[in-house]
Amino acid sequence: MNRQNAVTPSAEGIAASIRAAKTRGLPPVHLWNPEFCGDLDMRIARDGTWFYLGTPIGRPGLVRLFSTILKKEDGKYFLVTPVEKVGITVDDAPFVAVDFEVEGTGESQVLTFTTNVGDSAVAGPEHPIRVERDPETGEPSPYVLVRAELEALIDRKSFYRLVDIGSHHEGWFGLWSSGAFFPVIPSDELPAG
């Protein structure tokens, strides 16, 4: 019998599977490759809000639980347990970087980001910062890699704070962290003043 048609996955069933596994830290989703069970009516909005059946999930603990089993493959997002793999929709990035801490200055600067689900990532070669610009408006969308192809959109207030501590390097305005420079905008495109 085709598993995809056998059982419709549910958020409750997936949450129960995760709780039963009782792993410490993040589960090893990179090792789990169960059969695809179908899509789940779950969506992560651009602002980081998780929705199930069109309704926001109001329990932060449940959102955190789901975030620990999120996996990206071939540009698509899945919730994965050892026995189930269900597709979900992500509007932009699955996480939002809601704050950051700065240690040091210049090339010795280290930026540590915190996400809306409680993850942290120290920007550097393994957790790069990148900025996409909307082709029509030019508005920047900054991201930091949190883990295994999963990025966090850096929220507006944090981005403004990052701009305040940015510097110029080799024709770019950008950010230093963990010895790496992350370009944000060509220096010649910065407004005068």
Structure overview:
The protein has four helices and 15 strands. It has helices at 3-6, 11-21, 60-67, 156-165, and strands at residues 36-44, 50-52, 55-56, 70-73, 76-80, 85-90, 95-103, 110-115, 120-122, 129-133, 140-147, 150-154, 167-169, 172-177, 180-186. It has a six-stranded mixed sheet with strand order 3-2-1-6-5-4. Strands 9-8-7-12-11-10 form a six-stranded mixed sheet. Strands 13-14-15 form a three-stranded antiparallel sheet, covered by helices on one side. The longest helix is centred in the first third of the chain and has 11 residues, at 11-21. The chain has 193 residues and is of the alpha+beta class. Helix content is 17%, strand content 42%.
Write the SSE topology.
Layout: H1 3-6, H2 11-21, E1 36-44, E2 50-52, E3 55-56, H3 60-67, E4 70-73, E5 76-80, E6 85-90, E7 95-103, E8 110-115, E9 120-122, E10 129-133, E11 140-147, E12 150-154, H4 156-165, E13 167-169, E14 172-177, E15 180-186
Parallel strand pairs: 1-6, 7-12
Antiparallel strand pairs: 1-2, 2-3, 4-5, 5-6, 7-8, 8-9, 10-11, 11-12, 13-14, 14-15
The end-to-end distance, rounded to whole angstroms, is 68 Å
**Gross geometry:** elongated
* Backbone CA Rg: 19 Å
SS class = alpha+beta
Write out the strand line-up for the largest beta sheet, numbering strands in chain order: 3-2-1-6-5-4
Q: Averaging pLDDT over every residue, what do you get? A: 89
**H-E order:** HHEEEHEEEEEEEEEHEEE
Percentage beta strand: 35-45%
* Fraction in helix: 10-25%
Count of helix runs: 4
- Count of beta strands: 15
Low-pLDDT segments = 1-7
